Amino acid sequence: MNPIYSVIIPAFNEEGTVASLLAAVRGVMDGLGAPYEIVFVDDHSEDGTLAAAQGFAASHPGMLLLHLKRRSGKSGALQVGFDAARGQVFLTLDADFQNDPADFPRLIEKMKD
Fold it and tell me: Residue 113 and residue 101: Cα distance in Å, rounded?
């Protein structure tokens, strides 16, 4: 099944927030009742960000996990995510909880207006 929504998350050295962020995203997106995917782009992190994302992905099939071989910056990592995403609507988040995934339902409603 093709996703309606693609949640694209670029990350660099965010080991401490990955598991809680991904759990929050899944909780919000599951509540929408529409097909979605999570596209997590590790921007060549130097800490345990990739391992934390891999641990989450292992128990949550359907998550697309991309690891960049060299640092690309946020814009570059987002572009990689956009290129890989299959959804009709792209939603983006910073991996450090700078944005709250709980805002997605309101954002989606605004898009429908």
Answer: 20
12 and 80 Cβ atoms separated by less than 8 Å: no
- Per-residue pLDDT of 6-36, as tens digits, reads 999 999 999 999 999 999 999 999 999 999 9
- Judge whether residue 41 has pLDDT over 80: yes
43 touches 68 (CB < 8 A) = yes
Sequence letter at residue 27:
G
Q: What is the pTM of this model?
A: 0.95
Backbone angles phi, psi at 13, to 5 degrees: 55, 55
Cα 13 to Cα 50: distance, rounded to the nearest angstrom = 9
Contact 24, 102 (CB under 8 A): yes
Written as one string, the DSSP assignment of 78-106 is: HHHHHHH---SEEEE--TTSSS-GGGHHH
Tell me how far apart the alpha carbons of residues 38 and 5 are, in angstroms, rounded to a whole number.
9
